[in-house]
């Protein structure tokens, strides 16, 4: 897409009876070169055009026109960049606000669920626990706004996942039972050791007492 400067230049060259397709791009390339002063670039471009212009006098103001139009385009491009940057900032801000809204909504939903569970009766809690045990882990999508479990008909391909949950639950329960048994056995063993140590201490104390009594009797 042609820039505003290129559009103007092509029109201006046509007015001067200069081939815009050939010299339009050439002149634009000279003026776009940032390695020299803009006024010098415009003067160089005009010198090129003088070689092909039928009326050189018509080019007397061309250098000033080129410089003015180029500066106008630079300002337009700069303004466009600023507008795009502002639009990007506004878009990011809107996205951030939307994310914060979703976070607040989720927090509110969780708080409502927790509050609802606090007001559930013992029967409701028992029923909820029963369903959880039967169907394994239940996600938020399977609970209503009050924290009640929603039992949905499962597809055949989902049964494997349910069975996996049950198996994992059984394995976890078995591991927990074994751990509790080990802890219980260790506790019993420790208590026996303490009782035995206490018995030995008492025996020694009794023997020392008997020994002292015998010594006093002999005296």
What does this structure look like?
The protein has helices at 4-15, 20-32, 38-50, 62-118, 122-135, 159-218. By secondary structure, it is mostly helical. The chain has a domain at 4-90. The chain is elongated. The model has no long low-confidence stretch (mean pLDDT 80). Residues 3-74 form the CCDC43 PWI-like domain. It holds the Pfam family PWI_CCDC43. Residues 175-203 have a biased composition (Basic and acidic residues).
Helix-strand layout with pairing:
Elements: H1 4-15, H2 20-32, H3 38-50, H4 62-118, H5 122-135, H6 159-218
List keywords for this structure.
mainly alpha; coiled coil; elongated; PWI_CCDC43; Aste57867_21658 protein; 219 residues; 0% strand
Would you count the extended β strands for me? 0
Q: Output the radius of gyration.
A: 46 Å
How much helix, percentage-wise, in residues? over 70%
End-to-end C-alpha gap: 128 Å
Counted by DSSP, the helix tally is 6
Global outline: elongated
Short characterization:
Residues 3-74 form the CCDC43 PWI-like domain. With 219 residues, the chain is an all-alpha fold.
């Amino acid at each position: 897409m042609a820039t505003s400067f290129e559009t103007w230049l092509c029109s201006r060259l046509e007015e001067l009876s200069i081939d815009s397709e050939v010299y339009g791009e050439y002149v634009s390339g000279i003026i776009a070169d940032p390695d020299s002063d803009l006024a010098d670039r415009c003067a160089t471009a005009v010198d090129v055009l003088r070689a092909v212009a039928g009326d050189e006098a018509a080019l007397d103001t061309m250098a000033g026109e080129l410089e003015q139009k180029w500066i106008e385009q630079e300002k337009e491009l700069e303004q466009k960049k600023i507008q795009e940057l502002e639009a990007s900032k506004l878009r990011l801000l809107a996205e951030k606000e939307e994310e914060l809204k979703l976070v607040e909504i989720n927090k509110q939903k969780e708080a409502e669920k927790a509050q609802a569970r606090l007001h559930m009766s013992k029967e409701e809690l028992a029923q909820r626990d029963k369903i959880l045990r039967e169907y394994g882990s239940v996600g938020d999508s399977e609970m209503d706004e009050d924290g009640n479990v929603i039992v949905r008909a499962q597809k055949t391909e989902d049964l494997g996942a349910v069975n996996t949950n049950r198996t994992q639950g059984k394995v976890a329960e078995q591991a927990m039972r074994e751990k509790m048994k080990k802890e219980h056995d260790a506790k019993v063993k420790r208590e026996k050791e303490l009782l035995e140590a206490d018995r030995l201490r008492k025996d020694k104390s009794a023997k020392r007492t008997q020994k002292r009594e015998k010594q006093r009797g002999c005296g």
